[in-house]
Amino acid sequence: MKIGIADTNFARYDMARAAIKELKRGCSAEIIRYTVPGVKDLPVAAKILIEERGCCLVMALGMPGPKPIDKTCAHEASTGLIMAQLMTNTHIIEVFVHEDEADSEGELASLAERRTREHAENAIKLLYYPERLTREAGTGQREGFEDAGRVGD
Amino acid sequence: MKIGIADTNFARYDMARAAIKELKRGCSAEIIRYTVPGVKDLPVAAKILIEERGCCLVMALGMPGPKPIDKTCAHEASTGLIMAQLMTNTHIIEVFVHEDEADSEGELASLAERRTREHAENAIKLLYYPERLTREAGTGQREGFEDAGRVGD
Amino acid sequence: MKIGIADTNFARYDMARAAIKELKRGCSAEIIRYTVPGVKDLPVAAKILIEERGCCLVMALGMPGPKPIDKTCAHEASTGLIMAQLMTNTHIIEVFVHEDEADSEGELASLAERRTREHAENAIKLLYYPERLTREAGTGQREGFEDAGRVGD
Amino acid sequence: MKIGIADTNFARYDMARAAIKELKRGCSAEIIRYTVPGVKDLPVAAKILIEERGCCLVMALGMPGPKPIDKTCAHEASTGLIMAQLMTNTHIIEVFVHEDEADSEGELASLAERRTREHAENAIKLLYYPERLTREAGTGQREGFEDAGRVGD
Amino acid sequence: MKIGIADTNFARYDMARAAIKELKRGCSAEIIRYTVPGVKDLPVAAKILIEERGCCLVMALGMPGPKPIDKTCAHEASTGLIMAQLMTNTHIIEVFVHEDEADSEGELASLAERRTREHAENAIKLLYYPERLTREAGTGQREGFEDAGRVGD
């Protein structure tokens, strides 16, 4: 079993290190890492990891900047990541941390670390423990932040 | 006959439970459930349910958050769900309840329950009673809210 | 020759009735109707009408609501309808009437009736009389409203 | 060698006439014209011209209106035209003139005439004289307006 | 090994010259240049360079204008470039310099020169030295501007 990690040198935090640590803690899959310049390069990298490197799931890690153009880039990348999944019938877990989600550099680093780790847990559940995701369904999970929780009932 | 249900652990209400209850009430199809983290993971999940699990219709259930980034995610997910349908010639009924459609948590829960159930009815009509949909054509149906009704005539 | 009509029960006017009346007045094609819940279900319905029911043209009829989310849905549906055309090399005539294009319910009904009929005429021209479209090229045709007319010359 | 021209009866100027005149002046390709109602019908028309009528390049001519909905239509059409090119490995030169680019009807007509002609020249260069395009690379060409010119150097 | 360069005559700076200089400095790949009118013509040009001219990577160089319509064009082009990559499993490095990123023509020229060169370095790393990209992962690289640097740690 191989898990791919596509990350960028545009990001200001080594999200892949966080992902790898968490994946290694939770499963014994082989990890293949593929670094590209920016988030718009992630879709094809993820597709190559799936189709040419045999990965059965990819984590796509990016940190879009705070400007409007960065938001547009992130949107384009996300659209591409969804398309890549549809072309391969394989999950690509998008982990994007927007620079303006945090108020300081330290907070940005913590958020990136935590969100990446929590999404690595999601990756493991998707591959090994899908019933755990179903148990959490509708519970308002929020990666990197406090969970929002259930409403009603 | 198999019907797929793709839902998320991001949602704050167990929409799948509502869907399953309604589907079981109205037909005898086997139901296959597939829970993913968020709405952007729904398109590939729906496509897998169709192509690898034999579902002839999928309900895609999600609850996008209230922030602009959540709206963008929902838009990306919707675009992917339409693409997945075109790639499979199979209906995927999108049931999204936006957190900011309701004024309180209780109202949000009721809306999610009701909209999901009414879309489950739509799913049943699409599969078993298409003539009922045609009879309702142009009557301003609104899932989760009061119907808007006809104009003219 | 078969012409498909995909319509919705979300719409507040029976646009399909208008389309069928006009199509029957202008040609002898067999008409196949397929009603779905909302505009986002139209792309796959249209593609099914083309690929599985043998239609050589489809009219996709919808009435998006006035809220921003409705505008987004309409945009997603339109994108899907264009993709469906590219995947089938077949025309899908989109006839969308936005609720906020009219000032009253009566006006909305008239607009829906008129625009649908004028697009049914376009459908007939595309299939039977393409030279008539070329004769009208550049003349500022507006379905449902007064034509805008030529500029220059 | 065949060149396709897809145009609309929504446009308020006979852009195809301008294109045909310029193409005939610059090359001996056979010209096939295909008129559709609006810009959203252009992508499939262009693809049909390429795949079923043997065109090795298509000019897609349209004149989007000034309202926000018209801008959205133009965006959807452009996205479809790019997709059609990717599906066929063939250039489709988009020539859109937005009604609100001009201050008067006369100016709109002149702009449509000039932009169409200058894009017809581009079409000829793409097919017959690619080295001329390379010679112009980075020179700030603007079809229909004064060129913007080089910066730097 | 062949590297493609797709550029435009709309751009106001000869970005291809900068790219070629940098590529020749860093590798011995054959370079194939393909100039098109504008950024929306880049996706199909890049795909042709890959599929019909044997390029194993393409740089797509463009300089979108400052108006809202130019931003929309750039967005459409970017979406197409990502799609072209997914259809070919090949990297297309997008190098777009927006006219309004710079305060003067001189600054615009410098930015275009520098960003293009730094992306040419990225292209070389992707093809020949992928481990260097991984070494830079998470370091906040910014092509054409000062790097943003790491956060945390």
From TrEMBL, chains A, B, C, D, E:
Signal peptide: none annotated. It is an enzyme of class 2 (transferase). Its EC number is 2.5.1.9. InterPro entries: LS/RS, LS/RS_sf, Ribfl_synth_arc. Gene3D superfamilies: Lumazine/riboflavin synthase. GO terms for molecular function: riboflavin synthase activity. Keywords: Riboflavin biosynthesis, Transferase. Pathway: Cofactor biosynthesis; riboflavin biosynthesis; riboflavin from 2-hydroxy-3-oxobutyl phosphate and 5-amino-6-(D-ribitylamino)uracil: step 2/2. It catalyses: 2 6,7-dimethyl-8-(1-D-ribityl)lumazine + H(+) = 5-amino-6-(D-ribitylamino)uracil + riboflavin. Belongs to the DMRL synthase family. This is Riboflavin synthase. It comes from Candidatus Methanocrinis natronophilus.
